[in-house]
């Protein structure tokens, strides 16, 4: 379909593409490193070590550490024999996957004030398990830094993201999310800073998952529910799931986008 304003998925630079890729004419590695630098500049915190949630948070963590002048170390080791947890159908399975997939390094973490950089927060349940893993390994403080803005809207263009009701940033403020995941502080990449980094290329990208403003409005306001309705802490009954599809709460998205909450 011809479209006068083509839009490119910003999540290629945040998560999807390999770091050595050049996507839409931009180096993915450079983008992620600069995301980390922005976080270190705009959301600094006193810390002893910077670590990443592997593998997608590594380059942003390197950028954060370099800008902050703090050592980067491998505080979490990822097993390459476990699949992605955010698409698992049950919360219990996702929790088990996190424990198998990520192993903390006590020698790096014990007694330290730790900044942990991740690419995004979707439901928040994985982040809460990571914070718990780090503190159980002896981390004195855990400060989460997220190399993307809060995700408040589902993707209707082929990315199998959860419904808006499952997206934690669509239901909670940053401070409420911080309390939910148990970190000592939490900061996201501001969308204005992200767009400023992209410069003249900024209008070419789609930010619908961050803004709720869709380049092409969906014809039906339904999205696929990927997660387990009950175990994700949402209110309602399993009977309310209509064949695996749920009504998207667009009014909620629009209010969040308009207020900036």
From TrEMBL:
One of its GO terms (molecular function) is transferase activity. It comes from the Eukaryota. CDD domains: PRTases_typeI (cd06223). InterPro entries: PRTase-like, PRTase_dom. Residues 48-143 form the Phosphoribosyltransferase domain. Keywords: Glutamine amidotransferase, Transferase. This is Phosphoribosyltransferase domain-containing protein. It comes from Lotus japonicus (Lotus corniculatus var. japonicus).
């Amino acid at each position: 379909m011809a479209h006068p304003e083509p839009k490119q998925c910003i999540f290629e630079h945040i998560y999807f593409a390999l770091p050595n890729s050049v996507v839409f004419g931009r180096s993915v590695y450079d983008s992620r490193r600069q995301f980390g630098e922005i976080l270190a500049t705009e959301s600094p915190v006193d810390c002893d070590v910077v670590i990443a949630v592997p593998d997608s948070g590594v380059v942003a963590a390197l950028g954060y550490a370099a800008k902050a002048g703090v050592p980067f170390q491998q505080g979490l080791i990822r097993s390459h024999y476990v699949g992605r947890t955010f698409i698992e159908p049950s919360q219990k399975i996702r929790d088990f996957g996190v424990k198998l997939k990520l192993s903390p390094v006590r020698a790096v973490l014990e007694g330290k004030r730790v900044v942990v950089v991740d690419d995004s927060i979707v439901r928040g349940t994985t982040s809460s398990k990571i914070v718990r893993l780090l503190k159980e390994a002896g981390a004195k403080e855990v400060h989460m830094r997220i190399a993307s803005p809060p995700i408040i809207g589902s993707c209707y263009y082929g990315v199998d993201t959860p419904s808006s009701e499952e997206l934690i940033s669509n239901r909670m403020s940053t401070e409420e999310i911080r309390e939910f995941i148990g970190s000592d502080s939490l900061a996201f990449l501001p969308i204005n800073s992200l767009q400023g980094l992209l410069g003249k290329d900024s209008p070419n990208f789609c930010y619908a998952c961050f803004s709720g403003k869709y380049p092409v409005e969906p014809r039906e306001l339904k999205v696929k529910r990927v997660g387990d309705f009950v175990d994700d802490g949402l209110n309602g009954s399993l009977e309310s799931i209509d064949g695996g599809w749920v009504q998207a709460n667009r009014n909620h998205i629009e209010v969040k986008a308009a207020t900036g909450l």
